[in-house]
Amino acid sequence: MRSDEPTRLANIITSLFRDQSITTEQVVVDETSTVDLVAGADAQDDCAVFRMNGDQELVVGSDYVRGPKFRLCEMGYLSEYDLGHYLVAANVSDIAAMGAHPIGLLSVVRYPPDMTDDSFENLMQGIKDACAKFRCPNIGGDIGSAERLILSASALGTCRRGGALFRTGAKPGDLVCITSPTGLAGAAMEYLRAQRPCAIIDELHLETMLDSWRRPVARVDEGIALSACRRVTACQDTSDGLKATIECIASASGAGIAVFEDSVPVPEPAAAVARHLDLDPLGLVFGDSVDFELTFTAPSDAVDQLRNEIGLHVIGEVTDDTDVVLCRSDGGRTPLPGKAWKHTVDEAGG
Amino acid sequence: MRSDEPTRLANIITSLFRDQSITTEQVVVDETSTVDLVAGADAQDDCAVFRMNGDQELVVGSDYVRGPKFRLCEMGYLSEYDLGHYLVAANVSDIAAMGAHPIGLLSVVRYPPDMTDDSFENLMQGIKDACAKFRCPNIGGDIGSAERLILSASALGTCRRGGALFRTGAKPGDLVCITSPTGLAGAAMEYLRAQRPCAIIDELHLETMLDSWRRPVARVDEGIALSACRRVTACQDTSDGLKATIECIASASGAGIAVFEDSVPVPEPAAAVARHLDLDPLGLVFGDSVDFELTFTAPSDAVDQLRNEIGLHVIGEVTDDTDVVLCRSDGGRTPLPGKAWKHTVDEAGG
């Protein structure tokens, strides 16, 4: 792990990553394939090194996170620890969406000159704790100074040969599922930006909503189960919002998707915020809410089998046209509600 | 490759990376180990996917580069294309220093709202061209907006089992070598920051010095040769400056290093700048010059063999104490000259 700052490296980072290369458990991909960490962050070399044994698929992705530029951070709701946790969750989520076992995370942390050692340590602890939670050791990266806090990372994972889940394979007749309800992250944003406090929401729902930013969950176990099932045809995380995710899977697969309004779960906090602010609750559920659930497609009998292994909600099905529609409970068919993430870059989160 | 910006993705990036997954050549690590790119940037999925076959060592690292905050960029000497090239060279150099074959690069490019499409395209072209030069396809990353241009990347490489080169194995009696003279990047900084133009330097040396920033070379072939030799005991790139690199290898290996003043090559541009500005030329060669040469240690007969394969300069030897010294031509022994990179974060480059 490179550092421009010898004191912080020596005092904080070294103690966080001591013995990592020795203590990190082997990842067993299948009967013939394993991954061992040979040199992690503790080695402080130019790179980290893994020993790969047998045939497997390596999965890698990068996510920059706005971090200190998150509106909720600017409003004082997110600590450095929370930002560190978020950085890891966002990156590991991409690995989970491919159906892979996480094997390591490279973190880029550039900090401003006035950042205190306590804040820096909290940030690194948030990274470390989230890495432990998602079984994805922080194997190195780049630490140094900048004019403000800059956070980026890359995550690596592995799965058996042919095990990676893509966005492209959805087939007409497949069911469309999500691992858990979406919309909490967006509801938190709408509620707190409106600055119209509601005692009931504050008491009952605010912590739950804030946890979608403070402790987001990368669906690692779910992704592994989806890959192991061998019949999942497409998968993507909802970090761009559910609407964008469904539209992307449909487009990449050259298929249509019909979502059934009555099947879409609306988390109670999102419903409460929608009532309070006079918004369409489905707009919160489908819109630019940066959640990290997995959206996937599979034949119905495979979905029945998966129900025994992971939480899931069937929300629609793949069709043989190329339309993405919401089938309303009144029989109408409309476009999916909600703002698409891609068109609101400066407003939204990730 | 994720993007917050559909137009730029569609118009610029898609055309840059078309058919990458099909056209990228297999990396042959050894008789039994290969790497194939299954899904690259063109797949536009959550992650890129490689198929790994057989036993091998995966090498991964991340480097953030100051890019627009480089002093030479602020002074107008570096274009967006140059910054893209630099980002790739800095990251691939870490792979080269481990002795690995590059297999892919994840780039994080966050651009300011006022960046023109031409500038953005030039930047991406610089990334693409450097990736081609170093045989390291740009397989994805994260593209989106930020308040200023932010550049970071992660590079991946592979080598045979046991083939990775670390900093830790230097043995007393080994020779200390560099692949090419260092100091050009630092000399360019000193000369241009001094703002004391010299017609001879401008005519004879400025382009050469600027090329160390505009077209730095990651020593990929050299790193592969060093690993293949099987007798190189330690290796590191000089991106923190030669002094810091030598001190790091000595410290990591628990050994001393004696550098012989008469053996250290001083590139003519650095000598000219030193004369012009009345500086110690060895201070430029050893100091905070962000070059991407490889510094390595090996027994002398292995060095003789390597001379037939790569360019190298023997500059010293590993000793059985723990001192790092410069053996002056007058017989004196002094610490290595030059400012160490780590203590000049806000002044220097990478």
Task: Map the helices and strands.
Two copies of one chain form a homodimer.
Chain A: E1 2-3, H1 6-17, H2 20-23, E2 27-30, E3 33-39, E4 48-53, E5 56-65, H3 71-74, H4 80-97, E6 101-111, H5 117-133, E7 138-145, E8 150-159, E9 175-178, H6 184-194, H7 199-204, H8 206-214, H9 220-229, E10 234-237, H10 242-253, E11 256-260, H11 268-277, H12 281-286, E12 294-298, H13 300-306, E13 313-319, E14 324-327, E15 333-334
Parallel strand pairs in A: 1-7, 6-7, 11-14
Antiparallel strand pairs in A: 2-3, 3-4, 5-8, 6-8, 9-12, 9-13, 10-12, 11-13, 14-15
Helix pairs in contact in A: 1-5, 4-5, 4-9, 6-8, 6-11
Binding site for substrate (chains A, B): 341
Domain PurM-like N-terminal (chains A, B): 45-158
Pathway (chains A, B): Cofactor biosynthesis; thiamine diphosphate biosynthesis; thiamine diphosphate from thiamine phosphate: step 1/1
Briefly characterize the structure.
The first copy, chain A, has about 350 residues and is of the alpha+beta class.
Describe this entry's structure for a reader.
Chains A, B: It comes from Lentzea rhizosphaerae. Chains A, B: Keywords: ATP-binding, Kinase, Magnesium, Metal-binding, Nucleotide-binding, Thiamine biosynthesis, Transferase. Chains A, B: Its EC number is 2.7.4.16. Chains A, B: This is Thiamine-monophosphate kinase. Chains A, B: Catalyzes the ATP-dependent phosphorylation of thiamine-monophosphate (TMP) to form thiamine-pyrophosphate (TPP), the active form of vitamin B1. 2 copies of one chain form a homodimer. By secondary structure, chain A is an alpha+beta fold. Chain A has 2 domains: 158 residues, 2-Layer Sandwich (60s Ribosomal Protein L30, Chain: A); 169 residues, PurM-like C-terminal domain (Phosphoribosyl-aminoimidazole Synthetase, Chain A, domain 2). Helix content of chain A is 36%, strand content 25%. Chain A has 13 helices and 15 strands. In chain A, β3 and β4 form a beta hairpin. In chain A, α6 crosses α8. The C terminus of chain A is likely disordered. The interface between A and B is large, with 73 and 73 residues.
